[in-house]
């Protein structure tokens, strides 16, 4: 724990926890913003180079605690114990746990340790695409995670409404900062500019390119996207589908048959995982995110900042990422035919498509610049600490009064 003193010891300690190192993508800039706002920062997640690199780059301490992404009762109990032991030793002023498993286990451990300000950062509802017993269990896990936190921070307004309507947490505990988003967007890094990727990908300048960025899974709507793209080829046979992402081996992984079909498709280009997605947006004519569930998709904001119109779904969270008819189009989730029509409309009408891209860039720079979103977040967290101090100050006289009464009763 020696490195914990990377800032003055009188600064409050914030612990940020996620389940898997891959999720470090959604934390870029967050740890540094907390540190610059006067916090000492510790990152907790399972071991991985991405987590180690992020913490080192942003001036935080990384502590590795293994956590399973799937339901694993025995392993989860061990993880809770390890989290409790670490939090008890660190004694943080504030914890922020997110992603499903870390959100549950981390908030339980923080509650057991009595952390003064506990935040469950909800980035989506995994059970929305589950059925049967699994759905019941996942929903109960969300309720427990929310119950252990002081605040459930939702990264979109539609997610907040969904959480409230499903009874995951009381309305008074739910918060959305600003217009939503987890981290906002670096509008300098993600910006319109010359395309240097098409030659490397073997795509000529005149070929229409439909893009996708993110995990390649069922819940992201990849089967719908492939089906819609095949329908699109009947009208625009030279179009390419650029998939910038990796085949994630999660619970919603694509089948071996689906993966093989994508990899063998003559008009689909798969990049695999890339550390910097910004140049790839400039190779696209539009971005499609046919997701079945979200919190607030950052890729939609990155594409918009890059001057692209976005087609996404009416799913929770996703619907907040597009101003329909202004910065892009929204379609029902799971509707490949309507998705194909939306892609065809934008590709066949370059004037409206480019106008949507310009409007998208303007919208993001007005509402979702990284500096603005993270600044609002750190201001909110400082207020949480002040609220915690007030709760403690109010509790102490009450506790003292109770002790006096007990002593008087003994004396009598």
The H-and-E topology, N to C, reads as EHEHEHEHEHEHEHEHEHEHEHEEHHH
Strand order of the largest sheet: 3-2-1-4-5-6-7
List the uncertain runs. none
The total of helices stands at 14
Indicate the mean pLDDT.
Answer: 93
Protein structure class = alpha/beta
**Amino-to-carboxy terminus distance:** 50 Å
Shape: globular
Would you report the number of β strands?
Answer: 13
Note the main sheet.
7 strands, parallel
Strand percentage, roughly?
Answer: 5-15%
> Radius of gyration, Cα only, in angstroms?
23 Å
Helix proportion range = 40-55%
Features:
six-stranded parallel sheet; 14% strand; 412 residues; alpha/beta; seven-stranded parallel sheet
Written account of the structure:
The chain is an alpha/beta fold. Helix content is about 45%, strand content about 15%. It is built from 14 helices and 13 strands. The chain has helices at about 30-35, 50-60, 75-90, 100-115, 130-145, 155-165, 200, 220-235, 255-265, 280, 300-305, 335-350, 350-365, 370-410; strands at about 15, 40-45, 60-65, 95-100, 115-120, 150-155, 175, 210-215, 240-245, 270, 285-290, 310-315, 330. The strands form 2 sheets. The protein has a 7-stranded parallel sheet, with helices on both faces. A 6-stranded parallel sheet has the order 10-9-8-11-12-13, with helices on both faces. It is globular and about 80 Å long. The N and C termini lie far apart (about 50 Å). The mean pLDDT is about 95.
């Amino acid at each position: 724990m020696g490195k914990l003193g990377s800032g003055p010891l009188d600064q409050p300690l914030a612990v940020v926890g996620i389940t898997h190192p891959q999720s470090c993508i959604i934390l870029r800039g967050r740890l540094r913003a907390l540190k610059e706002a006067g916090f000492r920062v510790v990152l907790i997640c399972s071991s991985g180079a991405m987590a180690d690199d992020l913490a080192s780059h942003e001036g935080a301490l990384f502590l590795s605690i293994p956590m399973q992404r799937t339901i694993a009762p025995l392993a989860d109990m061990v993880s809770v114990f390890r989290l409790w032991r670490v939090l008890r030793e660190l004694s943080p002023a504030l914890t922020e746990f997110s992603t499903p498993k870390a959100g549950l286990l981390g908030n339980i451990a923080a509650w057991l340790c009595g952390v003064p300000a506990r935040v469950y950062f909800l980035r989506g509802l995994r059970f929305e695409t589950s059925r049967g017993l699994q759905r019941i269990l996942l929903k109960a896990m969300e309720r427990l995670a929310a119950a252990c936190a002081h605040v459930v921070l939702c990264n979109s307004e539609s997610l907040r409404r969904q959480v409230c309507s499903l009874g995951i947490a009381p309305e008074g505990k739910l918060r959305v900062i600003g217009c939503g988003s987890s981290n906002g967007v670096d509008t300098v890094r993600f910006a319109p500019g010359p395309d240097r990727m098409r030659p490397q990908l073997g795509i000529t300048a005149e070929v229409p390119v439909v893009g996708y960025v993110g995990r390649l899974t069922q819940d992201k709507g990849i089967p719908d996207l492939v089906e819609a793209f095949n329908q699109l080829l009947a009208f625009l046979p030279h179009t390419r589908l650029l998939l910038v992402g990796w085949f994630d081996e999660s619970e919603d992984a694509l089948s071996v048959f689906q993966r093989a079909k994508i990899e063998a498709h003559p008009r689909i280009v798969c990049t695999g995982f890339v550390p910097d997605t910004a140049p790839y947006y400039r190779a696209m004519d539009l971005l499609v995110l046919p997701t079945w569930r979200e919190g607030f998709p950052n890729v939609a904001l990155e594409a918009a900042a890059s001057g692209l119109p976005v087609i996404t779904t009416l799913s929770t969270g996703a619907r907040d990422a597009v101003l329909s008819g202004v910065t892009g189009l929204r379609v029902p989730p799971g509707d490949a035919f309507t998705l194909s029509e939306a892609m065809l409309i934008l590709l066949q009408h370059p004037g409206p498509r480019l106008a949507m891209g310009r409007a998208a860039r303007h919208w993001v720079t007005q509402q979702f610049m990284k500096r603005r979103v993270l600044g609002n977040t750190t201001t909110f967290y400082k207020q949480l600490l002040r609220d915690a101090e007030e709760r403690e100050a109010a509790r102490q006289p009450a506790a003292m009064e109770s002790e006096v009464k007990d002593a008087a009763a003994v004396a009598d």
